[in-house]
Fold ABC transporter ATP-binding protein.
Amino acid sequence: MTLTVEKLTHWYSDSSQKLYEDVNLTFDAGKFYAIVGESGSGKTTLLSFIAGLDEPREGRILVDGIDAKKIGLTRYRQRHVATIFQAYNLLNTMTAYQNIETALAITHSKHQKDSKYILAALSRVGINANQARQKVQKLSGGEQQRVAIVRALLVDAPVVVADEPTGNLDHENSQIIVELFKALAHEYHKTVIMITHDEKVAQQADVEMKLRANQFEVQTVN
Ligand SMILES: Nc1ncnc2c1ncn2[C@@H]1O[C@H](COP(=O)(O)OP(=O)(O)OP(=O)(O)O)[C@@H](O)[C@H]1O
């Protein structure tokens, strides 16, 4: 699914300057995009529009040419886009398995209650059946992030967005997460968009987008 940001203009009411003016971007399916840029350049704000969590002052988000607003933002958030955050956003008092089961139920996935499918997906990222049955608060940061990624994968949204998903992780765990994002794009043909401060992570993306306040410079890597 191609995601298009069309004529995006935005400003916060307490700021005298526009954060974006007439910005156009295209994100293709099967590609892994890294968004980098200095603090305050508007990375999280852009992602919140792409994820349907907030609306820009002007401009549209389109999926395969259809306005997200036309789909309905709630439906768009549930069916079209999966979000992954630095703080994992898992439900701490539930097990890894239950976190995924709940997400599948909310999104009416055809795989809900398919325990073999859920356990196989967790196993693929190194979470075994015992760990799957533990409350997520007992798992390490890297393991929790892997659970969050499996959840995003299984809800089967065509667009996956992530805000600093490796921010809390050491190099080894970051690399595992980066490999999973690459697989989401290249094997599962999803549109994958990740904010990162880590240049080593950004360099592994297919396309690196550098944000500067009030302008975009799109640099293609690989
Ligand atoms: N809800 C808000 N209300 C007012 N101003 C905001 C709001 N959210 C962000 N801003 C401002 O908009 C600008 C862009 O913020 P944003 O969080 O998108 O940047 P960022 O590039 O993600 O930064 P960081 O790398 O520090 O997370 C900043 O100047 C910020 O202070």
About this structure: Residues 12, 14, 19, 37, 39-45 surround adenosine-5'-triphosphate (CB under 6 Å).
